[in-house]
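Researcher: Here's a chain I'd like modeled. Treat it as a single chain, no partners, no ligands.
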Amino acid sequence: MSTYNRKELMSFAGVQPPCNLITWKGKWTEVYHDDGCLILVFNGLFARNGDKNLPDFEYRYILKAMDLQAFGSDQTTIALQLFMCPLPQYIIPERRKAIMNKESDDEEYFFEDAADQGILPCVGTEYLNYKPEDIPEDEHGNKWYDYFYDVLKHPQMETMLDTITTCIYVLDAQRGYWLDDVFNQIGTSGWDLLYDLLTGRDWLKASIDRLKEYNKGE
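Model: Modeled as a single isolated chain. Structure tokens:
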């Protein structure tokens, strides 16, 4: 267990650890780590009981950390997003086929591909800023990039990963708040994305139909 002074504790998505930090190492599986991006899958398994609208399903959490400069932004910032990802066997075949790596028939790249396609509900976002001088030199004293090619070398990244690991069950308990959150101009929420994956109800059509109904009432 990693231990830090309470004054040094960080928070993720407004949640601060209630206890000493738990190390992230051994709690996550790395599925991608290169060129300003890191994708981790939490080893713990979660489940949601079904209702009249959604079936029972199990899911894992995916954490994606990206240096925004590596993706064309001028912001010296690493964005961390936590996604809720149903296991592939619970996703309807049509959606699962669209997610799966086209070069493989197995599930080896499923979580990596799902994290990259923008179809997963986000249940928390945080940002780590940095200054150009924070970027480390290589063993020869050279700086080849103006961003963190390896995001784990950000001076606060390890602490942030420990923070997320410590808070993961609290974040899961609050997932409904994030699923309710609308993230675009047509009123799409995380629930729309879940319905799309698990039932096939098209998230775009559902969002537009709901917006039309809302406008009729004005």
